[in-house]
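In the laboratory, one determines a bound structure by crystallizing the protein with its ligand and collecting diffraction data. In a computational setting the workflow is compressed into a single prediction: the sequence and the ligand go in, and a structural description comes out. We illustrate the idea with adenosine-5'-triphosphate.
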Amino acid sequence: MESVTKKAHAKINLHLDINGVMQNGFHSVINVMQSVSLCDTVTLVRRDDTDITVKCNVAGVPDGRQNLAVRALIAYCETRGISIGADIIIDKQIPMQAGLAGGSADAAAVLLAVNELCSSPLDMSELCKLGGMLGADIPFCIVGGTALAEGKGDILHDFPSMPDCVLVVACGGEGVSTPMAFSMLDEIYNGFVSDVLYTPHSISALKSAMSENDIIATAKSLYNIFEQPILSIRPVASNLRRIMLSSGAVGAMMSGSGPSVFGIFTSEEKAFTACATIKKIGVEPHMCRPIRR
Ligand code: ATP
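The predicted complex, in C-alpha cell form:
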C-alpha cells in the first residue's frame, strides 16, 4: 500500500508579543518561531476506499474531524476536487496543549504527505495558504526552521536562524486556552489592545544576536508577553523555569501561551543535569536542538 512518512516538528517561540488589533477584532501578533528536533512522526497510508482513520500511540488525541490532521486531509481533497482515503498514523512525542503546536505540526505533516502522493502537487505557497485556513501556526509548521510571523501568526517573513544549542523542553501542567491567556493580558494591561497603552517590545536585540550566531545574547533576548501571567497560575511551569536556570541554562522562557517551558544550554552536560532534576519533580523533559529549514 502506498504510504508517506513525515516528521512533524514542535515549535518554540523565541519572541511573542501583541502588536495591535486586526479589522476582524483579533489581536495581531509579532512572533519569532523556531522548529526543534522534538517531533511526532506522521504516516499517511493510502486506503482502497475513501475512509479516513487516525491511529495514535497516545490516549486523548481526538478522533475523526476533531483531529487537525484529518481536517487537513479533508481540506486538501476538497481544494483539489479529489477524494483520498487514508489511515493517518501518529506517533506522538510532542506534549499536547503545551504551546508547542503539536496538532498544527501533525496537520502540516499530512498536507506535505498527501501533496507528495499527488501527481500534480501544490507549490509551497499554495500549501501554506491552505494550511493558514485551518490554523494560524500551520504555515510555519509547513516551512519550518526559523521565521518571524505576523497577523494571526500566518504571515511569515525570513529571520536569521537560531544558533545551535541544546534545548530542554518540558510541560508544566494543564493547558491554558488562548482566550483565557488573552483575557489575563487584558486584566494586567487594563485593555492593552489600545496602542496608546501598550507598546510592543523590540525584536532588534534578538535579531542581531541571531544574525551574529551569538547563543548567549539570543538567550538573553527572549520575550513572551504571556509568560508572567501564565506562570503566576502554573507553579510547576514556573518551577521548571527556575530549575533550568539553576542547572546552567543561559536563558529559559515559556513557549506560546504555555505551559511548556524551554531552556537554552551551551552544553549537553548541563542539559542532562536539568533533565535529572525535572524528572525528580515528576515531569518528563525532552532534550532537543533547534533545526533549520
Ligand atoms: P498551539 O501551540 O498551536 O496553540 P498547542 O501545542 O498548545 O497548540 P496542541 O497539542 O496542538 O496544542 O493541542 C491543542 C488541542 O488540539 C488539543 O486539545 C487537541 O484536542 C486538539 N488536537 C487536534 N488534533 C490534534 C493532534 N493531531 N494532536 C494534538 N492535539 C490535537
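The chain has a mean pLDDT of 93. Keep in mind that any predicted model is a hypothesis to be tested, not a measurement.
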